[in-house]
UniProtKB/TrEMBL annotation:
<dbReference type="GO" id="GO:0009252">
    <property type="term" value="P:peptidoglycan biosynthetic process"/>
</dbReference>
<dbReference type="Pfam" id="PF03734">
    <property type="entry name" value="YkuD"/>
</dbReference>
<feature type="active site" description="Proton donor/acceptor">
    <location>
        <position position="159"/>
    </location>
</feature>
<keyword id="KW-0961">Cell wall biogenesis/degradation</keyword>
<keyword id="KW-0573">Peptidoglycan synthesis</keyword>
<dbReference type="InterPro" id="IPR005490">
    <property type="entry name" value="LD_TPept_cat_dom"/>
</dbReference>
<keyword id="KW-0133">Cell shape</keyword>
<dbReference type="GO" id="GO:0008360">
    <property type="term" value="P:regulation of cell shape"/>
</dbReference>
<keyword id="KW-0808">Transferase</keyword>
<dbReference type="InterPro" id="IPR038063">
    <property type="entry name" value="Transpep_catalytic_dom"/>
</dbReference>
<feature type="active site" description="Nucleophile">
    <location>
        <position position="182"/>
    </location>
</feature>
<dbReference type="GO" id="GO:0016740">
    <property type="term" value="F:transferase activity"/>
</dbReference>
<feature type="domain" description="L,D-TPase catalytic">
    <location>
        <begin position="69"/>
        <end position="206"/>
    </location>
</feature>
<comment type="similarity">
    <text>Belongs to the YkuD family.</text>
</comment>
<comment type="pathway">
    <text>Cell wall biogenesis; peptidoglycan biosynthesis.</text>
</comment>
<protein>
    <submittedName>
        <fullName>L,D-transpeptidase catalytic domain</fullName>
    </submittedName>
</protein>
<dbReference type="GO" id="GO:0004180">
    <property type="term" value="F:carboxypeptidase activity"/>
</dbReference>
């Protein structure tokens, strides 16, 4: 259905599904989710110093960032930056597809796409708290997959956490690439992103 959102500076219309998108490619394999669930004292406590270093990005402020006009995801660093032009307004750790080598080529390869896309659907009833659909595949993705005799896949999302991840492990979920191609942040972070972007906001995903 369509909705109109009043965000304090005017109204905007966004497209929201009442149910999770079909054939959700973000659904993680049980083994990978199990790895996250079993982090516990041994895996999470890499060491106080090491973990503190990996958590070097600041926790997000729960504010609406009205000046955000693009998103940059850097896969090798596992970061997502909300930006105004080239200026970083906020930055988060992300989990990616379980196969993190190279761009997504075909359906089922477990990879996160690389390239320039757009945010084109908002879903407030996601299995992963909230999700925002990314416009993969584009025309180039279709051509590339067709040349391999395959389909490019679909339903790539920016979303919150799997509800099965234990509370004590949710802040370090990014240490495992547990999605099947989507980009995952914490529920608090997806709230910040949700309130900071618009339909059509460009998202560039780099290697």
């Amino acid at each position: 259905m369509r909705r109109v959102v009043d965000d304090g500076i005017g109204q905007r219309e966004s497209s929201v599904s009442d149910v999770e998108f079909p054939a959700d490619t973000c659904r993680p394999r049980r083994k990978i989710v199990g790895d996250v669930l079993r982090l516990g004292a041994g895996a999470v406590a890499l060491s106080a110093t090491s973990l503190a270093a990996k958590r070097s990005l600041a926790q997000p402020a729960v504010v609406r960032l009205l000046s955000v006009d693009n998103i940059l995801v850097t896969k090798h660093a596992r970061t997502l930056a909300l930006r105004s032009g080239d200026k970083v307004m906020n930055e988060f750790r992300v989990a990616l597809g379980r196969n993190d080598t190279g761009p997504k080529r075909v359906a089922g390869d477990g990879k996160t796409p690389e390239g320039l896309y757009f945010l084109d659907r908002f879903n407030s009833h996601s299995e992963f708290y909230k999700s925002i659909h990314i416009s993969y595949p584009n025309a180039n993705d279709w051509v590339r997959a067709a040349s391999l005799g395959q389909r490019p896949g679909s339903n790539i999302m920016l979303h919150g956490l799997d509800p099965n991840i234990a509370p004590e492990n949710r802040s370090v979920h990014w240490m495992f690439n547990w999605t099947t191609g989507c980009i995952a942040v914490t529920d608090l972070e997806i709230d910040v992103i949700w309130d900071s972007v618009r339909l059509g906001t460009p998202i560039e995903i780099r290697a």
